[in-house]
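Service request form, structural biology core

Requester: graduate student, group of Dr. S.
Request type: structure prediction, single chain
Budget code: on file
Notes: please return the result as structure tokens.

Sequence provided:
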Amino acid sequence: MRTLVCGCLVAWLAVGAAGCKAGRAEVRDERLAHLDFRQVVADAKDKVFPAVVYVKCLQESHELGRKISQEISASGVIISPTGEVLTNWHVVERAVEVRCLLYDGRAMEAAVVGSDKDTDLALIQLKIPADSPPRGEAAGPPRRPRGDGISLGFHGYFTN
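Core staff response, request fulfilled:
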């Protein structure tokens, strides 16, 4: 009896899903035919770019008795209204100074709150003047399947 019920349920789901998929495909194809790709990209940029931050760090290390300074720049994403920024661990590793440039042109100092080498993620906190909160903010935690990787923008290296 249990096998019969399970078999009927699977058959019912398969038939229903096939019908739904066909209907969704037709609607999707119709919507895609009317999309202007340039407008889609422009709309996405307008929503996302205000949350993107240019991060520049001064890293120092002592090797062979010499102090070596290196500037590294990358990107980050504002994830809260209080100015928390998600970036990469390798960007803030050995950082003695962190500066950020916001989308609207404001420059701010930042402090490393925490980092995780295994996931290559770091959290930095913008030092925001009380009268000047960040304008961009991510909509919340990304809805990504477990195990998907994250890459945050371009990473450029400059040596002094």
